[in-house]
């Protein structure tokens, strides 16, 4: 059995992984709060997608990869299968998105919360072990079943708490405190799952396919930066709850728009308007019967 080191670079990788999980949790909670105040189904879907990306992509998956940078096996070079690594990202985002849809499409109740937490937690655990399966090294991986089950339980509990916070927390300080708790839960699940791992190196050295950590680091960091910047821009550009409330108040004060008044014709006592239309296209000429004659004119 090979020696495993989870903190090859010391405190820097766990500190960065925790910071990423807190940052993603803050953005995800803020975006989830916008789901409750959205007026249309399209707006709810948009904010749900952003919340799923923030929580699943940044708070969970990016945290996982950052922590994996400190993972090392003595005597083995670690590489990663790119399609499986990308699949683990999709699993995390989709699982969180479906969990938010379960708890956010109706009145929040314990049944919805538990269903969303179980589904999301199972998705988070699937993301973690899919990312572990993406590792390529000259050896075989083994897992302690008890610790694996414990990590799945932690993932389900953490996901349930995260969904409950996403649907109930609104104030800035409460959001930040919740994000700190979520960061502890996500990192706790990750390192519990990592403690279940054991590596048995092969006696013969063989070629290992896949991309190295350095090859994946740059595109992942760029994707995280652009994702965070995009989330911040979407949050800053969107109207706040106070803006929506102020607009609704002004609409209520203004009341319904009055209907346009019908045009009133000016008085025409001597028939000048009728005379001015004679000879125009579509205007009938007066008949002989309607035209006064000399005989009909009274004499003086």
Automatic annotation (TrEMBL):
Domain annotation MHYT: ranges: 9-200
Biological source species: Micromonospora lupini str. Lupac 08
Pfam families on file: MHYT (PF03707)
Residues covered by region (Disordered): 255-300
Transmembrane segments: 15-33, 45-72, 84-104, 111-129, 149-166, 173-191, 211-236
Alphabetical list of PROSITE patterns matching this protein: MHYT
GO cellular component terms attached to this protein's record: membrane
Ranges of biased composition (kind: Low complexity): 262-271
Name of protein: Integral membrane sensor protein
Biased composition range(s): Basic and acidic residues: 287-300
Alphabetic keyword roster: Membrane, Transmembrane, Transmembrane helix
């Amino acid at each position: 059995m090979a020696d495993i080191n989870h903190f090859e670079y010391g405190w820097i990788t766990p500190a960065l992984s925790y910071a990423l999980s807190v940052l993603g949790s803050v953005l995800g909670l803020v975006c989830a709060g916008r789901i409750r105040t959205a007026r249309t189904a399209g707006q709810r879907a948009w904010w749900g997608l952003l919340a799923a990306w923030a929580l699943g992509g940044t708070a969970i998956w990016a945290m996982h990869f950052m922590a994996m940078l400190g993972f090392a096996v003595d005597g083995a070079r670690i590489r990663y299968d790119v399609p499986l690594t990308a699949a683990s990202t999709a699993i995390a985002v989709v699982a969180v998105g479906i969990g938010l849809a379960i708890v956010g499409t109706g009145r929040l109740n314990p049944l919805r919360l538990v269903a969303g937490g179980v589904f999301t937690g199972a998705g988070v655990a699937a993301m973690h072990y899919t990312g572990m399966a993406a590792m390529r090294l000259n050896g075989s991986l083994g897992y302690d079943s008890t610790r694996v089950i414990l990590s799945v339980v932690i993932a389900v509990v953490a996901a349930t708490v995260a969904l409950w916070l996403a649907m109930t927390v609104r104030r800035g300080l409460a959001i930040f405190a919740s994000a700190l708790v979520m960061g502890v839960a996500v990192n706790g699940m990750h390192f519990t799952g990592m403690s279940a791992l054991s590596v048995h190196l092969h006696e013969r050295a063989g070629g290992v396919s896949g991309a190295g950590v350095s090859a994946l680091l740059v595109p992942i960091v760029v994707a995280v930066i652009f994702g965070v910047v995009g989330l911040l821009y979407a949050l800053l550009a969107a109207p706040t709850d106070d803006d929506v409330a102020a607009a609704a108040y002004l609409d209520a004060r203004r009341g319904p728009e009055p209907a346009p008044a019908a045009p009133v014709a000016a008085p025409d006592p001597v028939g000048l308007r009728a005379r001015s239309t004679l000879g125009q296209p579509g205007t009938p000429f007066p008949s002989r019967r309607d035209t006064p004659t000399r005989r009909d004119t009274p004499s003086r």
